[in-house]
Amino acid sequence: MERFGLPKRPGELTQHSIRVAGEIPTRYWEFDDTHGVNRTSFKPVLRAGSILVVKRAALAGLGIARLPESLVCTELDNGTLIPVLGRFPLEGNERTIWMLYPANRHMSTILKTFTDLLYHVRVVTEA
User: Fold this and answer.
1) Taking a C-beta distance cutoff of 8 angstroms, is the pair 1, 16 a contact?
2) Which regions of 34-103 does DSSP assign to beta strands (E)?
3) Which of 48, 81, 109, 117 is 20 to 30 A away from residue 42, measured at CA?
4) Are 118 and 101 in contact (CB under 8 A)?
5) Bridge partners of residue 30, in order along the sequence
6) pLDDT for res 123
7) Residue 66, Cα to own-chain centre: how many angstroms?
8) Residue 12 has what DSSP assignment?
9) Rounded to an integer, what distance in angstroms lies between the CA atom of residue 17 and that of residue 70?
10) Which pLDDT does position 5 carry in this prediction?
């Protein structure tokens, strides 16, 4: 931020140090603007396996990170972290949950209930 200033448009993210959780070598974020969805690609300078590591990097002033608001609400409230590009809403903010279980075995009642619950939550949040 000291070097390039606060980004004013999503395309300016390519000048900044981006921190992400995950192992994919290149990334993109999609923003909604007056012209529709704008995809901004970047190569992260830190790919961590833990979102908490990404949060610590952001708190240390090491770059921009996309973090769940619930994880950083205290830091946003006290000004330790600041939101960036607030007038460009992020697309795809929903979370995907993958469940793996052996298909060749009988599904227990508790697993069946849990998968039904997750399916219902997904449908409700998309409505």
Assistant:
1) yes
2) 36-42, 46-48, 64-65
3) 81
4) no
5) 39
6) 43
7) 5
8) G
9) 23
10) 81
Distance of alpha carbon 51 from alpha carbon 104, whole angstroms: 34
**Cα separation, 108 vs 122, whole angstroms:** 21
Can you give the pLDDT of all 127 residues of the chain as single tens digits?
Answer: 777 788 888 777 777 777 777 766 557 778 877 777 878 777 777 778 788 988 998 898 888 888 888 788 899 999 999 888 877 777 765 555 667 777 667 778 888 888 777 766 544 333 3
Contact at 8 Å (CB) between 65 and 52? Answer: no
- For 37, the 3-state DSSP assignment is strand
DSSP code at position 3: T
The pLDDT assigned to 78 comes to 93
CA atoms within 13 A on the CB side of 107: 12
